[in-house]
Amino acid sequence: MGLREYVIRRLLQLVVTFWAFFTLLFVLFRLVPGDPTSMFILDGMTPEQREQRIAELGLDQPLHVQYVEYISQLLTGDFGQSFIYREPVIDIIIVRFMNTIVLMGTALFFAYLIGLTFGALMGWWRGSKFERGGIVVTLAARSSPEFWVGIVLLSVFVFWLGWFPSGGMRTTGGELGGGFLARYGSTDFLRHLFLPALTGAIVFMATPTLLMRNTMLDVLNADFIEIKKAEGLPERTVLYRHAARNSVLPIVTVMAIATGAAMGGSVVIETVFNWPGMGREMVRAVNSNDYPVAMAAFFLMGSVVIIMNFLADLAYVYLDPRVEYE
Amino acid sequence: MSTETNSPVTRLFDGVANSARFIRDKFEAFEGDRLGQIGLVILATFIFIGIFARPITIDFLNITIPGLAPHDPTATRVGGRLEPPSLEHPLGTTVLGRDVFSQLIAGTRVTLLVGSLAAFMAVFIGTNIGLVSAYFGGWVDDVLMRITDIVYAVPFLPFAIVLVAILGSSIVNIIVAIVLVLWRSTARVIRSQVLSHKQRPYVESAEAIGASHVRIMYLHILPNVLPLAFLYAAFAVGWAVIAEASLSFLGFGDPTMLSWGEMIFNVYTADAIRVAWWWVFPPGIAIMLFVMSVFFIGRTLEKVVNPELRHQE
Amino acid sequence: MSLLEITDLKTYYRASDGWVRATDGVSLSVDRGETVGLVGESGSGKTTLAKSIIRLFPKNAEIVDGSINYDGTEITELTDRQLRKQIRWSEISMIPQNAMNGFDPVYTVGSQIVEVIRYHEDDTSKKEARKRARELFNELGIDPDRIDDYPHQFSGGMAQRAMIALALCLSPNIILADEPTTALDVVIQDRILETIKEKQREIDSAMIMITHDMSVVSETCDRIAVVYGGRVVEIADAETIMMSPRHPYTLGLRNAFPDISDEDKDLISIPGTPPDLVDPDEGCRFAPRCPFATEECWEVTPEAEDYGDGHMVECHRADEIEYLQEEAAKKETWMEQEIGRPDETPPEVTSDD
């Protein structure tokens, strides 16, 4: 089977996964015990308002009609109105989604950069003090929930040393206009970004580090590493161009899972640092029964993970010439 | 004699012997493995604290074993508001004048409960799905693995938040939410392991003598993949505890059961994080230590399950 | 002077229970264009000996004593960088046992050849390097277009040819061939050996052929060194080793392989296993498995003795060549001996006299 067929098949799978995810979401938000419509109703509504709201949301329709309606709305990007803000959900969520992507993207980037380097070195210098210490540090980081790492960093760098702001995304409350760079490029923004991104990087670093170390140990036993050394190539070339390059393959497959972890992590990290992202918005929405917003946030998070899974599979095919498209 | 080898009783004994061998191997693996030993000691300490946290009354003997917690963790004003650590309150008091040390000790129970129950159920489900999927193959495998793939697309914590918010904040719902996602990794790993076992001669010979599917799966194959399930259980305990702590920290914890995560949530809502370090750090350190201990143990088990790793140390 | 002169080389590994003396006082010389075979069972230390020449061993190994002189350069004294730049591959290259695993699976074979050419020759362009790789492929009987294939797309024999191309791309003076054909089936084995010999003659390089297979060395080598327990126990030209060896181990090894002249001969293998090389005791290391071991063999490590024409033997009974050769040809000699020292007695008792 050729590459083209593989991609097409994988695309079909993507569609099926998305459909299953849509359905899961639909079921999940109708699971509520007793009257499923109760969660779409705010306290203190008059019976007329209730009626109107239920009709507005189509909750008086039979389930299958609701389902079809729901799917078609999702496909057009229509997530309804926020109960609290009284604005289209999409407008509320899209800015926060970008904020989350910037924060988690930065965190993941550094987690992988540091993790892969660190893990490769741990494998290269196996049996050394560096390796043993590295394992303990990595396991400690992996054992810490995001909020705990965040609190420790807050206590040290904000409350004690006073080097960074305690939360938020920028000092001036006012909205910044302009392009992407004006929004996300200013030093003030970077100062706010540092601690939450570091928190994520520390927690997400553990998986790539340990995996990289393990696969490095396997790869270093391979015959070709000895040949590369016999060829006289410098140690750095053997380590990075050959050993690390081979060890990276399994890492690609866990990247999608890491994205899932990052999406979950964003909920906690954004709460600790008051980051105006989708995760914090989701907690707020759930707490205030703003279900359209909660649902949209959950939908976007799941979509990111599904798409990352897809991309990881494609990347693997590209990186490993041995893959057969079965 | 040889005809008896396949009788159910012998099989069962074999299974028991297998497990016994595994446990013996397990302890051998801990020898000379400092991290694994540290993990065992920490975990044992937590289990001890968890069991004896509160007074235990044995009715028919008419005795009460006093609890380790010096105060009732939920009693307000056993001390002043936000008192720093003292002899009376080794870890100070909360904003409501509750004893932090007692809360910390009581919280151990919730952690143990959630960790062990959620891990057991997740691994139980995961092992069965992996076993059935690999053993039957074909469309069964296709369907089960597609489902696993889809669960892999579900972001863990957001899912748990939504589920708990909809079903209500109770310890049972929290465990259900964790289990519904956590089984996925066990299912995948057990499946690939069973796939390799399915090819082995002992399965073929069991098929040849006409053993039923259930029999082959649970009496012949399962004992061989059980060590791997143990390993995943150890890791699952860690993940479950982190998930519970995170949920509680976000305010979705069971309000009737005070957990470590909830303690930190209380610090946050009381806006006391800047002042009351004695209230924030103990539960955080406890979570970290507990999860580290199971990960250390898991790492050691990994060497039993995957002996190649042992030579790499 | 020889191209390569190894004198009293000792390469030890650090192990948890002491030093593993993988190469323990070996002297060996290789002339320009000459092929020397290193024969012995696995675990005899032949591979360590060969890899010591380019100091290619794990981090827990080191050359503790001795000298390796390559064409006037003392290899044991080079810095890592000098070793890499001046010796490895450009002067001494190697062909591994399993060529398939010798290539990095994620790069094309051609790009790996180009990589090593360009690292050692600063002024060779990528295009020239590619052209040379194609030429080499052509000479070795592989379609030149296949330089853009990945290693897994090659068959075993083809991969071994590609590996030879890699080993020859810098026209080295010495090629270390570590059992280059054992992973292949017999029909291809011969063709590959021929190819190696042919190319070796063409560029006039020496070769050290490591193998446990007596028939391979007898066909390809000018001289043969028999390695046992980290030492060269016998060395001579190929004909002497095959026809009139003096060391019981060589006799035993020869028995284990089919003889071309005598087809009805039974194959006899040597009972027992190679010795543990962790801090070995005094005495001949082959004594525990040797059917001819005497009291002296257990007590005194034999010195190398010269039997003319560079025929060196480390054996106390090498003088009794006729008796040894006759007895060693019988199966009973090997099968009925006891492994280990026959009169092993606790030291407390012997200390009395």
UniProtKB/TrEMBL annotation, chain A:
It is found in: Cell membrane. InterPro entries: BPD_transp_1_N, MetI-like, MetI-like_sf. It holds the Pfam family BPD_transp_1_N. Its main location: membrane. GO terms for biological process: transmembrane transport. It is a multi-pass membrane protein. Belongs to the binding-protein-dependent transport system permease family. This is ABC transporter permease. It comes from Natronocalculus amylovorans.
From TrEMBL, chain B:
InterPro entries: BP-dependent_transpt_permease, MetI-like, MetI-like_sf. It is found in: Cell membrane. Keywords: Cell membrane, Membrane, Transmembrane, Transmembrane helix, Transport. GO terms for cellular component: plasma membrane. It comes from the Archaea. The keyword Repeat does not apply. GO terms for biological process: transmembrane transport. The chain crosses the membrane at residues 35-53, 112-136, 156-183, 225-250, 276-297. It holds the Pfam family BPD_transp_1. The keyword Transport applies. Residues 108-298 form the ABC transmembrane type-1 domain. It is a multi-pass membrane protein. Its main location: membrane. Belongs to the binding-protein-dependent transport system permease family. This is ABC transporter permease. It comes from Natronocalculus amylovorans.
From TrEMBL, chain C:
Residues 4-254 form the ABC transporter domain. InterPro entries: AAA+_ATPase, ABC_Ni/Peptide_Import, ABC_transporter-like_ATP-bd, ABC_transporter-like_CS, Oligopep_ABC_C, P-loop_NTPase. Gene3D superfamilies: P-loop containing nucleotide triphosphate hydrolases (3.40.50.300). It is a peripheral membrane protein. GO terms for molecular function: ATP binding; ATP hydrolysis activity. Residues 331-344 have a biased composition (Basic and acidic residues). GO terms for biological process: peptide transport. GO terms for cellular component: plasma membrane. Keywords: ATP-binding, Cell membrane, Membrane, Nucleotide-binding, Transport. It is found in: Cell membrane. Residues 331-353 are annotated as: Disordered. Pfam families: ABC_tran, oligo_HPY. NCBIfam families: oligo_HPY. This is ABC transporter ATP-binding protein. It comes from Natronocalculus amylovorans.
